[in-house]
Amino acid sequence: ELPLLRARAADVLDIAGAETDARGQTVQFSGRLRVTSEDAFARLKRLFAEVGFFPLLRDGPSAGENVVVAVRGPLGASITNRSWLNAVMFALTLVTVTAGGGSTLAMMLGDDRPDWQAVLANGIPFAIGLMLILGAHEFGHYLQARRHGLPATLPFFIPMPFGLGTLGAFVQMRGAVENKRALFDVAVGGPIAGLLIAIPLFIAAIIEPALGGKPLPDTRSLLAEGLITLFRPEATSLGIAMTPLLFAARIGLVLTAMNLLPLGQLDGGHIAYAALGRRRAYWLGWATLIALCGVALLTRSTIWVVWIIFALASGAHQATPLDDVTPLDLRRNVAFLATTVLLISLFTARPF
User: Could you tell me which of 168, 335, 316 has the C-alpha nearest to residue 254?
Assistant: First the structure.
């Protein structure tokens, strides 16, 4: 197999060295690519599949050097869809969000012991708004994963019997992402899809409610302040009475901002890896973590402590794409800059 693989690797690589592991599961070739990394990976994927292997493409230890690894086995992966479980978890989460969100909002509005009518009156519109935002976010990931041939399940919603009634939702994916472009698309698809629901919902929710009699504390994000200036200018220096839909939209905007932080397994962590590479994304993640610790100390806000713990628990390890050399194209680099601006406009040190 080694001569067969070497001949195929030589189609795109000036081979300077080759080595294989003891079990013959991987063969590594080092050298310099003669074609673009994108073209090289496409050819290697086809050529290696003919002999039962799939390729990995990496930067070498020296500048301009590349490493091609042939790994034994099929490239494809499969996943079992259990739509009945998705439906059950969605229904449970809808119930817990209605109860938890309705109770929380009723107490925020001054009702310390809300009855079931008050819980339902607040909880049903809140649950509809928040579930739409969470669902759009996860379907954004799902559709981008399927577009790039990555097996993915429908969204799983996570019910929680206290607080707002949910820990969010997730899409389970299997298999390796082919390149950084696919990784970027899958990661950015969720936040953008969620905002397509959260922003119009926020605009609709700020138009009708009464204004507060006192100036609002400095807690609004730049995006929220801009939307209020455009659609409710008289509220730029005053609070807006909280409603279920406004509460859902605020939660959606805050969760999107937190997910866009360039940290670990958050969407922002994957976006940073795709745009900046492993090393820069690693150090940016540590810088973000240190900055969040500073924000938590200055604001004494428990939400940042909870989010830091969640980010650390999710892990800092990034799944490396099969082709880890091909960079983002111009369109995605522009999208990365736009996403960075979006994070800055959504972020606020005191979300609540």
Answer: 168
Contact 100, 119 (CB under 8 A): no
What are the distances in angstroms from CA 124 to CA 42, 183, 244, 245, 247?
50, 36, 8, 10, 12
DSSP one-letter string for 133-189 = HHHHHHHHHHHHHHHTT--BPPPEEEE-SSTTSEEEEE--B-S---BHHHHHHHHHH
In whole angstroms, give the CA distance from residue 284 to residue 269.
9
pLDDT digits (tens, 9 = 90+) for 137-157: 999 999 999 999 888 889 999
Residue by residue, DSSP assigns 282-323 as HHHHHHHHHHHHHHHHHH--HHHHHHHHHHHHH-SPPPPPSB
pTM attached to this predicted model: 0.90
Q: In whole angstroms, what is the distance from residue 44 CA to residue 68 CA?
A: 9
